[in-house]
Amino acid sequence: MKNFIYPHIFWVSFMVIFLINPLNCAAQTDKVTVPDNDPGQSDLSPHSLYAGLGYGNNMIYLGSTISQNQPYAYTTLTYGYRDMLYISLAPVHLAGRNPFIAFSMTSVSFSHVFNSWFDISAASSYYHVAPSLRDTLFGNFLYTDVTFGFDWKILYSKLSAGGMFSEDNNVFFQFRNSRYFQTPGFTSKDLFFAFDPYVNLICGSLTTMETDTGSPVQISPPFWKNGRNSQLSSNAEYSSSFRCLEIDLGIPVSFNSSSFTIEAEPGYVFPLYEENEQNGTKGFILTLSLLYRISPK
User: Fold this and answer.
1) CATH code linked to domain 2-293
2) Res. 213: pLDDT tops 70
């Protein structure tokens, strides 16, 4: 157990020191990543429409791998209104799974900036799984959260409280520190690079399932009593506890213009409980995405 904890403390300490190191950076923001509008244009429409696509080596969500450690790809269509309201739809394909669209995500988010140091946002996401995969992947669920953002100038902090609504309801809390900065614009198209390294802590419900053999298996939503773990639950005893689930480290790097954003996000996940074959969340993760503004400016 000590061998598991000490490396995590080292890396977390390293990232915290890195994030609070003073840098010349722009004001912190944390919203849907969309191409920036040209600030010199005052007659822009309040409406915007974006199309995108992405790839990842493993989709980890609230302490669980909902892609079952498999690569995934997705496309997305997003509508935005005045940089405050976003509605998006994203079908997802999992490698080696049929049908081709394993599940889809529908999301709605709203954010409001009160002043230079405080903002608030609310979001809701519904995950709809293909009926033929609900016994082997996971069941449909809705996740809704409220997030408070605090801009300390040298650090941007977020505190989120959310609820998962499915066959069993669960509560989650997340605390994230990030440090956004970007390069000056270059070329006539005002292109720039942006960086947003972060450390994220997730706490929530963790269920321990003890099988007939006496071997404990730890699982967390959306697998609890849904999806593949339902196949193991016929003769097992369950107990649940609220605890910290994982620490995520990531360094999103994006290349931006007024019409598109290309982003790569390498990261690493440290589970804060004993790993088992069912979860498989520990390790390196990578996501790649492209978002293009298709609405007229």
Assistant:
1) 2.40.160.40
2) no
